[in-house]
Amino acid sequence: MENKMNDFIIITEGEKAALIDPVGKVCLGISKKLADHLDQPEVQEKLYPIWKQQTEFIRQIEEGREKINTAYLMVTRKCNMNCDFCAISANDKMRPEKELQLEDIKDKVVPFFQKNKPHKLILTGGEPLIKDQIVNIIKSLYDGIACPITLQSNGLAVTPALMEQLCGYLDEIDFSTKHMFESPEKEKRLMEHVEMCQKAGIKVALSFIYEKTNEEDLYKLIEIAAKYDTDVLFNIISPVGRAKDHSERLTDMEHIDMNLKIAKYIVQHGYENKKIGNGFYQRIQVRNSCGGYGKVMAIFPEGDIYMCQCMEKNQVRMGNILTDQPQKIMDALDLLLKKDSIRQLFCVEHKEICKECDYRYICGGRCLASEDSFDDRCIFTKAMLNYVLFHYNTQHDRKQNLQTFMKYMEQTKKNISSN
């Protein structure tokens, strides 16, 4: 046969199989019966045109994609809170003196992003809304670059006047919400913030840090998300920054339980057709690394640029936006990408814990931003991927898929307990 496909990694469950092509960056779903006979010419002849079409489709997407997918701009380390889980250890006692100013944004940051166009920009901190001249900073970024801008905020500095000034200059605000359930007054303020943003035409996403002690707050958040039909980002604490010393990490089984509780609550209350009802499906993306390997960059408040927003380390430092020319910074990135030590941080073929795992090209590998202890069975991640690969049905409605999700996760728990 003249036409030859790349080698596949094969994952099976029951009578189904997933063929993962790390080179063509394609994942094909077929029957296990076909997968068992991949070496036969008639099977290859049947699969080849499908594989070829998909690889060509991915190639075209890759060619048109910006080099940098996500750029983080941390405008301040100062914050009006002191959260135990903060990744950069921001707090209300900081008095930073050498942080980026409005003129730096105009003269250095905007020209850099005009030359090296990111797909999206995330404006964060600290708490960005307490930064001096933040409105003018946001307007300068919006006027100077062509990508969507998302602001991450705890919401405490939000006012109607501020939202009026930002109207038309932000695409989305992601509100962290864990602290907003400390009292009925704060919970009311959160809803007012959502209303202000939606009135201003700014998309809202609500971010929630789940811990073992805040299950009731989780349900309150779902109610707000359903009422205003917002996206929700459910997170568990990552042991970086201050969280390394102050927070307890969930086990994979506890992570599965969290997702089961969310799914059950959504179905029981009829919220499956809200945005929150689509949170358990993730598109399978074949890749050989996480975004830190050349697809993400983070500019910290003093101007230093790193390959990952969670790794403020010299090992991954690309330069400084205030002192280095844009080309020098990107040249430094190219040199970093060639280093074995960098590949060992970000690339699945080079991570000892990942390089023999069949799922490595569809999960991106273990995040090495944390040196915390780690369950290398990756039970939760594999369960979520298996749900999408083998159980999610595009012909079913959301309620049916959520019921399938719950059934599969319950079975996963039983299987793990019996082993």
Please render the helix and strand layout as text:
Blueprint: E1 9-13, E2 16-21, E3 26-31, H1 32-35, H2 41-64, E4 68-74, H3 102-115, E5 118-124, H4 134-144, E6 149-153, H5 160-166, E7 172-176, H6 184-199, E8 203-210, H7 215-228, E9 231-236, H8 243-246, H9 252-268, E10 296-299, E11 304-306, E12 317-320, H10 326-337, H11 340-346, H12 360-363, H13 379-391, H14 398-418
Parallel strand pairs: 4-5, 4-10, 5-6, 6-7, 7-8, 8-9
Antiparallel strand pairs: 1-2, 2-3, 10-11, 11-12
Helix pairs in contact: 3-4, 9-14
Structure summarized in a few sentences:
By secondary structure, this protein is an alpha/beta fold. Helix content is 40%, strand content 16%. Strands 9-8-7-6-5-4-10-11-12 form a nine-stranded mixed β-sheet.
Helix content: 40-55%
Strand count, sense and barrel status of the largest sheet are:
9 strands, mixed
Strand order of the largest sheet: 9-8-7-6-5-4-10-11-12
H-E string: EEEHHEHEHEHEHEHEHHEEEHHHHH
In angstroms, what is the radius of gyration? 23 Å
**End-to-end CA span:** 44 Å
Helix and strand content put the structural class at: alpha/beta
> How many beta strands in the DSSP annotation?
12
Mean pLDDT reading? 91
Shape: globular
What is the tally of helical segments?
14
Regions with pLDDT < 50 over 5+ consecutive residues? none
Q: What percentage of amino acids are in beta strands?
A: 15-25%
